[in-house]
Amino acid sequence: MLESLILYLLLGSLAGVVAGLFGIGGGLLIVPVLIFSYAAQGMPEAVITHAAVATSLATIVVTSVSSIIAHNKRGAVRIEFFKYLTVGVAGGAVVGVWIAEQLTGENLQIIFGLFACAVAVQMAFDIRPKRGQTKPEQNELIGAGLVIGSASSLFGIGGGTLTVPYLTARGAEMREAVGTSAAVGLPVALFSAMAYMWAGQDAAGMPAYSIGYIYLPAFAGIAIASSQFARVGAKLAHTLPQKRLKQVFALFLACIGLRFLMGNLLGWF
Length: 269
Prior knowledge:
The protein has helices at residues 2-22, 27-40, 45-73, 79-102, 105-124, 138-155, 160-169, 174-199, 216-236, 242-265, and strands spanning 210-211, 214-215. By secondary structure, the chain is mainly alpha-helical. Strands 1-2 form a two-stranded antiparallel sheet. The radius of gyration is 17 Å and the shape is globular. The two termini are 27 Å apart.
């Protein structure tokens, strides 16, 4: 248990630095490392991936609070976008967890691998949408929230990789897109984590100290460390060559994505 807690504290530290450095949630790092960690601990394959995704989302509930406060103080949260996105996110989170429940762990890893590869390409080539001029309507925001919530609950992320480009394309300034995305990350993670708690209450093979699919020792270690080290990443973002670091992290994501794809489709590794 002590060794595992140390691992989770280290993972939380890295996830926090990544989140602060690149402005993305740590879920893209947390989920694959938890999958490998849970497998090494002997957790049954049937629940490994679902537990990794659920635990990642639970940590985002904690770590997103300080980020929201900071962005809101700077007036970077567009409330008119946030409230309607949240309505869609609430439904999307439930839909995403329901979809995850229909998938095997192997298939869920394949989907995560595809998403990781897509994000890797976006980061490596710095692909960003041009800022649009048309403000989205209420129904569009709810629909976008539904998609963002569904995808986020499948991948164990706060949704920033989806929310920021969407809001930018629909007229928000980058500062507002990032701030509003951070705010949306809280309901994304909260509703998704609650849904995974409910869906996994009868899951066979979850270890002691679990609530549904959420493994509490991992949650505690990651949440404690990541919330502290996000500040470190934010400071490093102003001193280190971020473009080159993004390319390195993109390579890491591509390797993780290909590992899940090849491992489950071709039986490699």
